[in-house]
Amino acid sequence: MTDRTERIEREGDLGVLPDLLEFVDRSCRRRGVVEEDRLALRLVAEELCVNVLEHGYGGGPGWIRLSMEVDGARARLTIEDRGRAFDPARGPRPDVDADWREREPGGLGLHLVRQTVDDIRYRPGRDGANVLTATTRIRTSPATAEAEEER
Amino acid sequence: MDVTTREQGEVLVVSVTGSIDALTAVELSDRLSSELEAGRSSLVGDLDAVEYTSSAGLRVILATLKDARQRGGDLRLARVRPTVRRVLDLSGFTSILQVFDDLDDAVRSFD
């Protein structure tokens, strides 16, 4: 059972983040994704989109497209942009066992993504675009989907 | 996201409501910095009404923790919800700061 892919695109800086996160919340609610998994998807979307908006475009405005597919018990988030290429397999890994004095702020976002998703991959797309895809298992509940229809 | 503060003796209880994301974390950071600058370094973050935080929130927690401890105080958390707790656990934060189920216990821990 494959659901329709929903997508949102924006041109801007970090200011577009609320729209992108609201899109994830709405898509999840419509599909009846349980709250815990909805929040996990929001986290993955935020971390990956913020990387694009802050690092890929250096904080300046840029184009970003976020898509979400739900296929049975799995959700796939796809982030497309035309900023600087960024492969999530690289990047600093935080030392989560270090003493508080030695803790560094870098790499936490990607660490959370890697701990949350089942798969994440980067590939170059058409016209110099970057395409990042993250897949994770989710649970859905008919009650959650019905509640959303009544909103 | 909303931040309110309340003094309980030497301890400042910082109650946060809503989601801590890359945008709202800036406001939270500013508020906590002001309190530290004003000499309040015994801080309890009451996260009972926080359903979500991203790494942006973690970075604010880390910076506040370091600053408070360097001033001879501390940042402790209370009433952390499961999804936020998961993020703290995954990042190894629960091993570097104290988290309490009960707000009064968190405040009393500074005695």
Description:
The complex is a heterodimer of chains A (151) and B (111). Chain A is of the alpha+beta class and 151 residues long. Chain A has 4 helices and 5 strands. Chain A has helices spanning 17-30, 35-56, 108-116, 142-149; strands at residues 6-12, 62-71, 74-81, 119-124, 130-137. In chain A, helix 2 runs antiparallel to helix 3 (108-116). The two termini of chain A are 25 Å apart. In chain B, helix 1 (24-37) runs parallel beside helix 2. The radius of gyration of chain B is 12 Å and the shape is globular. Classes of the chains: A alpha+beta (151), B alpha/beta (111). Chain A binds chain B through residues 14-15, 17-18, 21, 36, 39-40, 42-43, 46-47, 50, 54, 94-101, 103, 105, 108-109, 111-112, 115-116, and chain B through 21-23, 51-52, 54-56, 58-59, 62-63, 65-66, 69, 82-83, 87, 90-92, 95-97.
Instruction: Give helix and strand order of chain B, one letter per element, not per position.
Output: EEHEHEHEH
Note the beta-strand portion of chain A.
25-35%
Low-confidence stretches of chain B: none
Averaging pLDDT over every residue of chain B, what do you get?
98
Global geometry of chain A: globular
Query: What are the secondary-structure elements of chain A, in order, as H or E?
Result: EHHEEHEEH
Question: Got a strand count of chain B?
Answer: 5
Q: Using DSSP, what is the number of strands of chain A?
A: 5
The coarse silhouette of chain B is: globular
